[in-house]
Each structure stands twice: as structure tokens, then as C-alpha cells.
Specification:
Layout: H1 6-17, H2 26-29, E1 31-35, E2 38-44, E3 51-60, H3 66-78, E4 86-89, E5 95-102, H4 108-129, E6 135-137, H5 138-147
Antiparallel strand pairs: 1-2, 2-3, 3-5, 3-6, 4-5
Length: about 150
């Protein structure tokens, strides 16, 4: 079985984005990409060659109701509208994120596909939870900071 390193995947991403990689220890630090004001964190996983992609979708202004939590939990459990990614809440339960983790056997090209899948899932969930009164999409917060 062929395995790929975290660095190989980052080099592929840099090539696709026509960007240079920073010279820091990216294995330890990870890297943040900003696409249309959306931060996407790329980091090495716990196992060698593992690759993690994560982005925050937005924030809740108050605790989620039991029904809302159940919707997020069942979507994760059954893979509904997740594309194989995982929905998550920060420890306070106020920030919604989406994450994907791949193994060392996943090629840089496949990780690039996961990256796009994660962005699509984030957009889809931003639409879903934007219908909840207490949700503020990340983009809306960024616009308010710039205008304020």
C-alpha cells in the first residue's frame, strides 16, 4: 500500500492554489487558508500521514435546543448531508464546525477532493442552520466587523 506524507499533500494544495508554502514546521503548526473570508485549517493528524481539514461555519447566540442537538447528532451518526465529514461544536457548544480526517493512504489528489467536499458540506450546513433563529453565519460576523 502506498502512503503519503502530510507535506506531500500540502505541496499538492500549494500547487493547486498557486501559492508558496511557508517555511515553518507545518507538521507541528498546521496551516490556515483563507478563501472568500473563510478560514480552513489544514493540520497533521495524530497518526503519521493523517491529514485533517476543518472550518468553522458560524456561531450560536444561545445554547442549542434539544431538537437542534439531536438533528446535528443524527446527521453525524447517519451521515445525513455530511459527505463523510463530521459536524462538531466547540467545548462551549456555541461554534459549529465541519471536519474531515483522512489516512496516510489517501493521495494528495484525493485530499484535494476532500477539501472541496468539506467546503460544500460547510456551505450546505450554513444554509440549514441559518434557518435557526440563534445562528449567525461566520461570513455575516466578518461583514459586521468590517462595517462596525
Amino acid at each position: 500500500m502506498t502512503t503519503y506524507s502530510y507535506r506531500e499533500t500540502l505541496e499538492h494544495f500549494a500547487h493547486q492554489l498557486r501559492a508558496d508554502l511557508p517555511s515553518e514546521d507545518l507538521e507541528a503548526e498546521g496551516i490556515d487558508l483563507y478563501l472568500d473570508n473563510t478560514r480552513v485549517a489544514l493540520s497533521a493528524g495524530k497518526a503519521p500521514g493523517e491529514f485533517q481539514i476543518e472550518t468553522d461555519i458560524g456561531y450560536f447566540l444561545q445554547e442549542l435546543s434539544e431538537e437542534q442537538l439531536e438533528e446535528l447528532e443524527s446527521s453525524n451518526f447517519y451521515g445525513i448531508n455530511t459527505g463523510g465529514c463530521t459536524l462538531g461544536l466547540d467545548p462551549d457548544g456555541m461554534t459549529l464546525s465541519v471536519k474531515a480526517t483522512t489516512s496516510a493512504a489517501t493521495s494528495p489528489q484525493e485530499n484535494w477532493q476532500w477539501f472541496h467536499r468539506l467546503l460544500s458540506v460547510a456551505d450546505e450546513w450554513k444554509e440549514i442552520v441559518s434557518q435557526w433563529e440563534t445562528f449567525v453565519p461566520l461570513m455575516q460576523l466578518e461583514k459586521e466587523k468590517k462595517n462596525g
